[in-house]
Design a protein that fits this description.
This protein is mainly α. The chain folds into two domains: 47 residues; 57 residues. The longest helix has 46 residues. The chain is flat.
Length: 105
């Protein structure tokens, strides 16, 4: 018994160490890419001075849409599925199928 728990603890510590290394590597890579994109955008705005406002406006619109799209993408199937599951004796099977279809989109 003790050897099994000791093996589990060792495997857990190895897994945690591996995950820490992967997280550190991910955040370093993400930070480097962010710096490169920032440098690219800065150079673009320096060369094309009249396009700064348009670039900022388009970036904000894109960011807003990227936040709203998953909200509706995940919310709509739930709106159809929850009432169909809560209904007695599966009377709303059509709503459930619509929810499954929306999930695929």
């Amino acid at each position: 018994m003790k050897s099994e728990t000791k093996n589990i603890e060792i495997e857990t510590l190895k897994t945690i160490k591996c995950l820490k290394i992967k997280f550190i590597f991910y955040f370093i890579c993400a930070f480097l890419f962010l710096l490169m994109f920032w440098l690219y955008s800065s150079c673009f705005c320096i060369v094309y001075k009249n396009s700064q406002i348009h670039l900022l406006k388009n970036a904000l619109i894109s960011f807003g849409l990227s936040l709203l799209y998953p909200l509706f993408n995940k919310l709509l199937p739930g709106i159809f599925r929850i009432p169909s599951i809560k209904s007695p004796k599966n009377k709303n099977e059509c709503l459930y199928k619509i929810g499954k279809l929306l999930q695929l989109l």
